[in-house]
Design brief:
The chain folds into 5 domains: 20-84, Complement Module, domain 1; 117-178, Complement Module, domain 1; 180-212; 217-417, no CATH class; 419-482. 13% of the residues lie in helices and 36% in strands. The chain has 6 helices and 39 strands. The longest helix has 19 residues, at 2-20.
């Protein structure tokens, strides 16, 4: 009986063990794969990866057929799961979700393409620029119309010893871009200096504004006579008439007209030195909104002054035209008329061959003047512009066009300035020695460029027939610069 009972127990146990190890013949309703959709029928399923995913290690496969075999879903192409797609691919990391990389330690960037440096937490500062950086290298490009302090528009930096430094050693500065300055249609970079009218200098600031010096524009006629325009063009004009030296009438109700009077030089009696014309005086006419005045500086021994036809020499200094003009005697033979806006006219009366007229015009007159002293636009090529508005390269035609017809109907032009040093070669060495003094450092800071007066000085000094004349011409050449 005991044997029968033991046999029954073994039979039941063995049978149970055999049933627990038998394979299943059915599968779940569909494959249990994440990020997929299914189309199943019985023991067969078509499995598709959802958008942004593909089967792992399948070279881009997104669909596969699955069959139920021994209770398991088996892919006909051997795939088992869908993984996220990152394009471009993750370089030093893995794709967590479509287009999103998770970087390995020590790397950064959208595709984990850049190694993390010590500079990441100390990003280089910049203004007015586009920037791109991978943590090790950074590039800056200034916005349109902006430049770096060296005038360039790009700056590249690298991380070295935990600091951002410029790759170009000549660009050892912060990546700050500044607006460019503009003057007469030309653009200038921050810190750039350039010359403008009347030898003034402008500097482009960091805010795009220009800072310019405000030296007066200086025009001058002297001697027999030699003229230099506001823009520095020197020429000689031997006319014998009255001429509009300086004229401004571009503001309604206001007008300034400085007239220089030229006559034959009394001193040049030597017929071998023809074609001489010297300054005999000047007339200054001014109008301000219905009020007018006429000031005459004479070339006589008293350096006389007339205001509206009345001699006022003994009343100096005086203010006229409601305080708009101040007239004074600066020296025994030096008269000046100064306008309230800074315009100054100086007359030096030393006899015909030594007299001079100097006009100092504030920068507010730039581009507004006409007459024998030319324009004030910084361009010498248009200084000899006639009263009719035609640019000339012939001083005779230019000068004659500015004659004051109310004073003299016919301008007497007596020819170009003679080459007196060629006429009197024995006088040249002495003249060169004296005139070369104009090029010395003593005159370097003078308001008028001395080098432009050198040729005029030679003409006058070679014409001097005696020591008195020589000294007179020399002195006027020196004093007209100060």
């Amino acid at each position: 009986m005991l044997k029968i009972l033991i046999g029954l127990i073994l039979f039941v146990h063995l049978g149970s063990a055999q049933r627990s190890t038998a394979p299943r013949s059915t599968c779940s309703r569909w494959p249990n794969i994440r990020h997929t959709t299914f189309d199943c029928s019985g023991s067969h399923c078509t499995v598709n990866c959802t958008t942004g995913y593909e089967f792992e290690d399948s070279n881009g496969q997104t669909s596969s057929e699955f069959n139920c075999i021994n209770g398991k879903w088996i892919s006909e192409s051997g795939v088992s799961k869908c993984e996220a797609i990152c394009d471009p691919a993750c370089v030093n990391g893995y794709c967590l979700s479509p287009g999103s990389c998770v970087c390995l330690e020590g790397y950064t960037g959208a595709q984990c393409e850049s190694a993390i440096s010590d500079c990441d937490n100390v990003y280089p500062g910049y203004t007015n620029a586009d920037v791109s950086s991978d943590g090790t290298f950074t590039s800056f490009t200034c916005y349109d119309g902006y430049t770096l302090q060296d005038g360039n528009t790009t700056l590249d930096m690298k991380c070295e010893n935990s600091q951002w430094i410029s790759i170009d050693p000549n660009q050892n500065f912060a990546a700050n871009c500044y607006p460019m300055c503009e003057y007469k249609g030309i653009k200038y970079t921050t810190g750039q200096k350039f010359k403008v009218e009347c030898d003034n200098e402008c500097t482009c600031g960091t805010d795009g504004d220009l800072s310019c010096t405000s030296k007066a524009c200086i025009g001058q006629c002297s001697g027999d006579p030699h003229c230099k325009t506001f823009d520095g063009l020197s020429y000689a004009y031997m006319g014998q008439c009255s001429y509009h030296l300086f004229k401004v009438d571009d503001i309604v109700g206001q007008e300034i007209d400085i007239i220089s009077h030229h006559t034959s030089c009394v001193y040049f009696a030597d017929p071998s030195v023809p074609n001489a014309s010297c300054l005999a005086g000047l007339t200054l006419n001014a109008k301000y909104f219905g009020r007018s005045t006429s000031i005459v500086f004479k070339n006589d021994s008293q350096s006389s002054v007339e205001v509206n036809g009345v001699d006022r020499t003994s009343n100096l200094p005086i203010a006229v035209l409601g305080g708009k003009i101040y007239i004074r005697k600066e020296d025994s033979n030096v008269l000046s008329a100064t306008f309230s806006d800074g315009l100054k006219v100086t007359w030096v009366s030393k006899g015909y061959y030594e007299s001079s007229i100097t006009v100092k015009a504030p920068i507010s007159y730039v581009g507004r003047t006409r007459g024998l002293l030319g324009t004030t636009d910084g361009d010498q090529t248009n200084d000899l512009i006639t009263a009719e508005g035609i640019v000339q390269n012939n001083a005779a035609i230019f000068g004659t066009s500015w004659r004051v017809t109310e004073i003299c109907d016919n301008s007497t032009f007596v020819g170009d300035a003679p080459d007196t040093c060629a006429m009197y070669p024995e006088r040249k060495a002495k003249a060169v020695e004296a005139c070369s003094y104009l090029k010395s450092e003593i005159f370097a800071e003078c308001p008028v460029d001395a080098t432009g007066n050198y040729e005029s000085c030679l003409i006058d000094l070679c014409a001097a027939q005696n020591e008195e004349a020589f000294n007179g011409f020399r002195d006027i050449a020196y004093t007209t610069l100060t």
